[in-house]
Amino acid sequence: MPFPESRPRRMRRTEALRDLVRETSLSPADFIWPLFVEPGKGVRREISSMPGQFRLSADEAAKEAKRAYELGVPAVILFGIPERKDAIASSAMDPKGPVAQAIRAIRTAAPDMLVITDVCLCEYTDHGHCGVVEKGEILNDESLDLLAAEALVHVKAGAGMVAPSDMMDGRVGYIRATLDEEGYDHIPIMAYSAKYASAYYGPFREAAESAPAFGDRRSYQMDPANALEALREVMLDEDEGADIVMVKPAGPYLDVIHMVRELTDLPLAAYQVSGEFAMIEAAAERGWIDRERVMMESLLSIKRAGADMILTYFAPEAAGLLAPEAGGLLVSG
Predict the structure, then answer these.
(1) Domain 29-326, what fold?
(2) Which of 34, 220, 270, 331 is the most buried (most CB within 10 A)?
(3) Which band of pLDDT confidence, cut at 50, 70 and 90, is reported for residue 154?
(4) pLDDT tens digits, residue range 264-319?
(5) Residue 86 has what pLDDT?
(6) How would you write 122-146 as a 3-class SS string?
(7) For residue 249, is the peptide bond before it cis, meaning its omega torsion is within 30 degrees of 0?
(8) Residue 199 pLDDT > 80, yes or no?
(9) Distance between terminal CA atoms of the chain?
(10) Is the torsion defined by CA of 255, 257, 262, 263 positive or negative?
(11) How far apart are CA 26 and CA 322, in angstroms?
């Protein structure tokens, strides 16, 4: 018998063979594009640590959302930056705030696009924490009313899904009960179930002006050392009525994504966060990596780990590369 007996390279020899046996593929329908919205009109402020990403007024956000939808991206998720911040995040409940305005504008520009909203308090508080603060402590139960009120404002403005990201215990069930009582039992919840206290969020905090004024978020976001705890968080959110669960960040936590995929039948989202995006952009700018291939490989790895959908700042560009006229680019050798 000639050596070797097994020749796996046979199925890698041509593009047609590689396509035939490819186990994981990407589609524009896998992507959710995060957008930062702020008050005003005609506003496009580039975020210095996130090249090509902008803080947008509602009218500009609508233009960008329509462009992404035409490329095949089915959903955006909105993060609001208000004019005024205070200790109880009162701007988060403003029915005329930037998120509510952007929801309406996007629904007009791209009626079939799914508009998801991030539900959290950190962008709206003057202390930058995701809950009510008293004597230096982030209070859990006292924060739930505010989070539910914020979610309700978004839904009344036309949001098709809400995504609580605060990591307060019980917030999924509290928001679910509030929406149901108000007649919005048809609105799904995408829970940031396993959200880690990660150092990869730095560029986002610049974009959203949401860095904590004191301390950090380790008392409510997860310890990066823990994986089994993520499974418990996912199970709790599923029991409370989450329709989608999420792992955040994505790339550094592929093992957690895989573990969650094995645990639950719920749709699984993963967030390729600002630091992941910025690292790829910075390395590419210096000529150290092939930007397009690394971008697509990073997204493919998240999908391969088990994510059904990926929140990524690369969404429109990646969707464009996956379009048939672009050759349906994937990762190849």
Answers:
(1) TIM Barrel (3.20.20)
(2) 270
(3) very high
(4) 999 999 999 999 999 999 999 999 999 999 999 999 999 999 999 999 999 999 99
(5) 92
(6) CCCECCCCCCEEECCEEECHHHHHH
(7) yes
(8) yes
(9) 30
(10) positive
(11) 8
The secondary structure of residue 88, as a DSSP letter, is T
Asked whether 275 and 198 are in contact (CB, 8 A), the reply is: yes
Q: Does 135 qualify as catalytic in the annotation?
A: no
C-alpha 198/C-alpha 204 separation (Å) is 12
Residue 331 confidence (pLDDT) above 60: no
Q: What is the CA radius of gyration of the chain?
A: 20
Could you tell me if 201 and 278 are in contact, meaning their C-beta atoms sit under 8 angstroms apart?
A: no
Tens-place pLDDT, residues 244-257: 999 999 999 999 99
Known catalytic membership, residue 96: no
List the alpha helices (DSSP H) in 71-184.
98-109, 141-157, 171-181
Q: Identify the active-site residue in 85, 96, 195, 303.
A: 195
Find out whether the peptide bond into 4 is cis, omega within 30 degrees of 0: yes
Rounded CA-CA distance 126/171 in Å is 21
Which neighbouring-strand residues pair with 115? 76
- Report how far residue 218's alpha carbon sits from residue 236's, in angstroms, rounded to the nearest whole number: 19
Collapsed DSSP state (helix, strand, coil) of residue 224: coil
| Alpha carbons 307 and 292: distance in angstroms, whole number | 21
DSSP string, 31-71: EEEEEEE-SSSS-EEE-TTSTT-EEE-HHHHHHHHHHHHHT
Q: How far apart are alpha carbons 197 and 18 in whole angstroms?
A: 39
Domain ranges of the chain: 29-326
Report the alpha-carbon angle 159-126-214, nearest 5: 120
